[in-house]
Every structure is written in structure tokens, then in C-alpha cells.
Design brief:
This protein is an alpha/beta fold. It is 53% helix and 16% strand. The strands form two sheets. It has a five-stranded parallel sheet with strand order 6-5-7-8-9, with helices on both faces. Strands 2-3-1-4 form a four-stranded antiparallel sheet, with helices on both faces. Helix 1 (4-30) runs antiparallel to helix 2 and helix 1 (4-30) packs antiparallel against helix 4. The protein is globular and about 60 Å long. The two termini are 42 Å apart.
Length: 371
């Protein structure tokens, strides 16, 4: 039976987890980690104490491991990179789900099994661990050039934002292959957004900006920034970048055509080995993969994609005989799974829901940028 104290714990825990997630996203955007790490540590420590009081031992143990990671970041023995932030964000999602089950009085015996893949990822943050085959592919294909999204927050008194956008375009044209530069469609936010293929690092790109009336410059992997500065009413018009991975060539072509007709920008490959370098370089927002692939399977592909791009949305496709693996993919950060034979309406719905989740994250960033 859930007591009044339990309800207070759950309410406070959900609020703390949301604040922790927002702090991590802000830190990833600004590269200022100290305050975020302290806030997340306090949130985890507080929830751990409450979990102990209400008898949620598995959640308590998971939070203890996460505290250890945060302590290592504080001690500068672990760098707060994309992989670490991905683990922390996925852990928050898992804990939110667990607390939701516990609040409804569900059976908690499966918590330990559900936490195992996440605990394995935490363990792999150790720099001495052996890289997997998929990681070796990433490492074997180093590329200095990368796709980035540029986000310029202008001061509210900027007299002519259109002129500022033109000046920024001229300034960044010589840094690489400038794909786009212009005003965000939500003019009330005074935002200029762009996309660029370049060999320069984030700090070099920030230093390059000398245009007046630019208050803040934010740079992120292109696949995670497509919605920056875009008004809510404009979002349905954007072409979501989707990567399909399916070894059945006929099915692959069918899925690609269906999603393209719906308006998505879809690339298609038949193996994880082909997909891994594309994920690294092309900035996809959604990955749709079959679990049963030759060579590296879809589960490992999903894990590696989520490690490098914490906001990438992953949808796994599976036959009924592999539902257990699909459940494991969800625990590693996949958004959902679809059963074969595929219902194309369900596929479109899943991709649209992925878009909505990305919009939610970017809405949080907009609120922060406006502060």
C-alpha cells in the first residue's frame, strides 16, 4: 500500500529527475559541467535516501553506482563526454520508469534484470575496458570533418537580425562547407541557426564569431540540433533525418519509400557495419534497425548510437521470437519496438512520436536560452 510519505517521495523524486535531466542537457550545450554535476549528484543522493526509506533497494543500488560516476567526474578521472551524458540521461529515464511502476504498486522483482544492461554501460565507462567490435569500427574510421549545428542567440536589442544573419553567413563561409545560415523561424526569440561541415573544433568556431549583438553561441552535433530556433508550428514541415537498417533488401526499399512519401529524409543500408560510420558523420535524428542483422546485430548498433548521440531516437524491428532482445534494446535507450510483419501506420506513428520527443527536449533548451 502506498502511504502519504511514499507519495511525497515519488512527487519530489520525479521533480528532481526532471531538474537533473535539464541540467545535463544544459551542460552538454554549454560545456560548463561543474554546477550540473553537483546538482545531479544532489538529486541522485536525495532520491537514493528516499528509495532506501520506502524499500526500493534496486533503485538505491543503481543510484549508488551513478553517484560513483559523478564522483569520478568531479575528480576529473572521467571526462563528461557524450557517452557519459548518454548513460546518465538513460539512467534518469530508467529510474523514472521504475518509480512509476513502484508508485502504481507493480511487481518490483524485475528491476535488477532491467538494470543489468545499464550497469554494464556504467562499467564500460572505465577507460581500461576492451572496445567492442562496433567501437573498433568507429575508431578505425577517424574523420576530422564533422557536421555541426550552430545556434546564435541574439540580444533582444539587436536592430536588424536579418543583417546579423548575413554577417554570420559571410564569417562562417570560409570555415568549411556551410550548408545553411539564417534566422530561426520563431522571430520572437532572436535566433540565427546554421549547419556546417568543418574540421574546426567547438572552441575555434565560437572564437570565430565577432559579429555584434550575438549574446551566446552554442554548437552541437547536427543530428541533435535540427530543431534549434524553430517555432512549434513549423516543426511538422521539417524533414526528419532517418537511417534504416534492414538486411532484407525488399523490405528495406519498401520502408524507405513509405517514410519518404510521408516527408522524411531517409537513408537505407543493409548492415550495422555500413550504418556505424553514417551515424558518426551524417547527423540522423532517428535510427530504425532490425535486431537480427548479419555481423554486428541491431542491439549493439543501438547501444553504440545511443552512447555517442544521447538524443538520437531508436526504433527496433523484431520478429516475435526475439521480443526479449527488443526489451533489452528498450533498456539500452531505444524508444520502442515494432513487430514483424510491420504495420506501416504503426511505423509512421513511431517516427512521428520520435519527432515529438525531440521537440520536447528542444523546448527545454529554448526555455533555458531565454532565461
Amino acid at each position: 500500500m502506498v502511504t502519504e510519505y511514499d507519495e511525497m517521495f515519488f512527487e519530489e523524486a520525479f521533480e528532481q529527475l526532471e531538474s537533473a535531466a535539464e541540467a545535463l542537457v544544459e551542460a552538454e550545450k554549454s560545456a560548463d559541467w561543474r554546477d550540473a554535476v553537483d546538482l545531479v549528484f544532489r538529486a541522485f543522493h536525495s532520491i537514493k535516501g528516499g528509495a532506501q526509506m520506502v524499500g526500493l533497494e534496486e533503485i538505491e543500488e543503481l543510484l549508488h553506482e551513478l553517484e560513483n560516476i559523478l564522483t569520478e567526474i568531479r575528480n576529473e578521472t572521467i571526462e563528461p563526454n557524450t557517452e557519459v551524458i548518454s548513460v546518465l540521461l538513460d539512467a534518469i529515464a530508467v529510474i523514472e520508469t521504475d518509480l512509476g511502476f513502484a508508485q502504481r504498486g507493480a511487481n518490483l522483482e524485475s528491476f535488477g534484470q532491467r538494470h543489468d544492461p545499464l550497469l554494464l554501460r556504467i562499467k564500460e565507462l572505465n577507460p581500461n575496458s576492451e572496445p567492442s567490435k562496433a567501437e573498433q569500427i568507429f575508431q578505425a574510421k577517424p574523420s576530422k570533418r564533422r557536421m555541426v549545428a550552430l545556434y546564435f542567440a541574439l540580444s533582444q536589442d539587436a536592430p536588424m537580425p536579418e543583417v546579423t544573419a548575413v554577417l554570420l553567413e559571410k564569417q562562417y563561409q570560409e570555415t568549411g562547407n556551410l550548408l545553411h545560415m539564417g534566422l530561426g523561424t520563431d522571430r520572437s526569440r532572436q535566433v540565427v541557426v546554421g549547419s556546417l561541415e568543418t574540421e574546426m573544433n567547438d572552441e575555434e568556431l565560437k572564437r570565430l564569431c565577432t559579429v555584434s549583438y550575438v549574446d551566446q553561441v552554442h554548437i552541437c552535433a547536427y543530428g541533435q540540433c535540427i530543431y534549434a530556433g524553430v517555432a512549434q508550428e513549423e516543426l511538422p514541415k521539417l524533414r526528419l533525418k532517418v537511417l534504416l537498417v534492414e538486411d532484407n533488401a525488399v523490405l528495406l526499399l519498401t520502408l524507405q519509400r513509405v517514410l519518404q512519401k510521408t516527408g522524411f529524409d531517409v537513408s537505407a543500408v543493409t548492415s550495422a557495419e555500413e550504418a556505424l560510420p553514417l551515424i558518426e558523420s551524417e547527423g540522423f535524428q532517428v535510427l530504425i534497425t532490425d535486431i537480427q542483422l548479419p555481423g554486428i546485430d541491431g542491439l549493439e548498433l543501438a547501444r553504440q548510437a545511443k552512447k555517442r548521440f544521447s538524443l538520437i531516437q531508436i526504433i527496433v524491428i523484431t520478429a516475435e521470437t526475439t521480443i526479449s532482445k527488443a526489451t533489452e534494446a528498450l533498456e539500452l535507450g531505444a524508444s520502442e519496438y515494432l513487430l514483424k510483419p510491420l504495420d506501416m501506420r504503426e511505423l509512421i506513428r513511431a517516427v512521428e512520436q520520435s519527432q515529438n520527443r525531440l521537440v520536447k527536449w528542444w523546448d527545454r533548451l529554448h526555455k533555458w536560452s531565454a532565461r
